[in-house]
Design a protein that fits this description.
The protein has 292 residues and is an all-alpha fold. Helices cover 75% and strands 0% of the residues. The chain is built from 16 helices and no strands. Helix 10 packs parallel to helix 12. The longest helix is centred in the N-terminal third of the chain and has 22 residues.
Length: 292
């Protein structure tokens, strides 16, 4: 069936006709002007999806259908999203942002519209605009952890670490410790790979403050301190962790780090404090580890 025939069928069905064919019978239900506009918008939206599937987002026909749908039903966010994605695929970034802005203006209390505006802005490098809309989305929907993480990521990239950590702390209140700490740990390791060791140390120190019962924060910080030959500080951090959280991961780290030092004759002496910690904490609670 030709595409224009599909469009006509959709429009007829949505306008109240039970069958498509030659008939002089009036529709059972007369639609209001708003309902007719909605039906036409839905038909354009459906055609946009068909064009997208058969052509692609770069096709002018695809974009035309989504724009027509948005004009007829300006409160439906999905039509703006598809239109904006068409613009992005064509490299028309300003048009895409303008489209998302129109959607935000239609319903400024919808956090999803601000989230999508923020994500599009982030993709094209407008991180200040992205941060602004993520912050707005958080105000409108304060229980959504992913919004805090997205904004924290942007703030870290802007080297505004203190503000990023503030949002991570807020995210932890939503009882998503694993997700939040995993993201923060990953970013800390990214900083290490980029040579930003001082920023990574500050981040891990802050993580210990906001999540004192999480062994991975202590391990990440201790590992970095060992790399920088700050062994006394690393041991002090591990000892602090052993008093506050699950000891087994920390002791296993000590064991691995100690043996790593022993593999190099010049660093063998550095293994002693690690094994002393194991002797102190593992001999009674984890004798199998102590015997290793």
């Amino acid at each position: 069936m030709p595409r224009h025939a599909v469009f006509v069928c959709l429009l007829l069905l949505l306008s109240g006709c039970g069958t498509v064919g030659v008939s002089s019978k009036e529709p059972d239900v007369l639609l209001t002007q708003d309902e007719t506009a909605f039906a036409e918008a839905l038909a354009h939206y459906a055609m946009g999806l068909i064009y997208h599937n058969q052509l692609d987002k770069k096709s002018p026909d695809t974009l035309e259908q989504f724009l027509a749908a948005a004009k007829l039903d300006p409160e439906e966010h999905r039509t703006y999203v598809h239109a904006a994605l068409c613009y992005l695929s064509q490299g028309l970034h300003d048009k895409a942002i303008e489209t998302f802005k129109k959607s935000c203006d239609q319903n400024p209390r919808d956090p999803n519209r601000h989230r999508d505006m923020a994500e599009a802005s982030r993709i094209i490098g407008n991180i200040d605009v992205a941060a602004k809309h993520y912050a707005t989305a958080i105000k409108l929907s304060p229980d959504r952890t992913e919004l805090y993480l997205a904004l924290a990521q942007i703030l870290f990239d802007k080297k505004n670490d203190s503000e990023a950590i503030r949002y991570l702390t807020k995210a932890l209140r939503n009882d998503n410790d694993l997700i939040v700490l995993t993201m923060a740990g990953s970013y800390g390791r990214k900083l290490i790979m980029e040579g930003e060791n001082d920023r990574a140390i500050a981040l891990f120190q802050k993580l210990i403050q906001i999540a004192p019962n999480e062994p991975r924060a202590y391990i990440s910080l201790a590992s970095l301190l060992f790399q920088k030959n700050r062994d006394a500080e690393a041991i002090r951090i591990l000892r602090k962790g052993l008093k506050k959280c699950d000891q087994m991961p920390l002791l296993a780290f000590c064991y691995g780090q100690g043996h790593a030092f022993m593999e190099n004759a010049e660093e063998a002496d550095r293994s002693v404090p690690c094994f002393q910690l194991i002797a102190q904490y593992a001999s009674s609670q984890y004798p199998h580890l102590y015997e290793l």
